[in-house]
Amino acid sequence: MLWAAERETVRDSGRRIVLITGASRGIGAETAKVLAADGDHVIVNYREKRKRAHAIAEEIIAAGGSASTAGADIADADSTAALLDGVVAEFGRLDVLVLNASGGLERNAGPDYAMALNRDAQVRLVRQALPHLPAGGRIVFVTSHQAHFHGRKPVPADYEPIAQSKRAGEDALRAMVPELADRGIGLNVVSGDMIDGTIIVRLLERRNPDAVSARRDHGALPTIEEFAAVVAEAANAATESGRTFYVGGQDYLAADVRA
Question: In whole angstroms, what is the distance from residue 27 CA to residue 25 CA?
């Protein structure tokens, strides 16, 4: 991650320590850049894309920010336990956890993979992180309108497993709000329309291009930069736990908004 001298500099700097899952590309990478520009030390988590994650961290450092990388598969309990142990050993604490990593459209993904990743792994990671998050800490769960409004709005068939599982993950995390509040830890959710340029939208365009074009018919899709700015806002906001931040998709919001 960091050399010892750099580690001590981060420890003594007063910077928040922010772990962002799935941050080697897309929304996670852009969120890391935004938060680092705000003065946080960001930990760029990756599963396989080590070189890409290192490139993101190096870009942040070159711009005057503070960043490191940490490999872990959030679907694996031992891997995430080692991830958090490493963060705490290196920096002494964790202030913000951004739950950005998700999936379900990967080739050869099993029928239970989406739920295991988008619900079970998210809850487990929060449980593992709780002992290390101080009062004033924050958790941000990143989701989509198709998931957040699941059951009340149409969902492309190819996206259904993700929408269902991410809504289940959100519900499970919201059920933890009283426990988190007792610890002084806040949970915020960021829900967005399909985000131009993300891997999920690219994969969906290959399988069901009409589903993506149907969303474009409602207006320009939010960009990765626009979405990441709101994720960073949610990581910084001193609001009541359980707030949802919305990005794009005014047709969703005009008809029905809920937690």
Answer: 7
- Given the DSSP bridges, would you call strands 244-247 and 41-46 parallel, antiparallel or unpaired? unpaired
By three-state DSSP, how is residue 126 classified?
Answer: helix
CB 94 within 8 A of CB 137: yes
* Residue 134 neighbours by CB distance under 10 Å: 11
Asked whether the beta carbons of 136 and 184 are under 8 A apart, the reply is yes
Q: How much is the pLDDT for 5?
A: 39
Taking the C-alpha atoms of residue 57 and residue 32, their distance in angstroms, rounded to an integer, is: 9
- 1 vs 223, higher pLDDT: 223
Calculate the alpha carbon distances from 49 to 29, 73, 101, 105, 254 in Å.
Answer: 12, 11, 13, 18, 39
For the whole model, what pTM was predicted? 0.88
**How does pLDDT run across 211-230, given as a tens digit for each residue?**
666 666 566 778 899 999 99
| Span 76-91, average pLDDT | 96
Q: How confident is the model at residue 184, as a pLDDT? A: 95
Distance between CA atoms of residues 257 and 213, nearest Å = 23
- Percent of all residues in the chain with a pLDDT value above 70, rounded to a whole number: 83
Helices (H), 130-218: 145-148, 160-174, 177-182, 199-207, 209-216
Amino acid (1-letter code) at residue 252? Y
Q: Tokens 């990756």 appear where?
A: 46
Residues contacting residue 125 through CB under 8 Å, at least 6 positions apart = 21, 74, 80, 97, 99
Close Cβ partners of 65 (under 8 Å, ≥ 6 residues apart): 33, 36, 37, 42
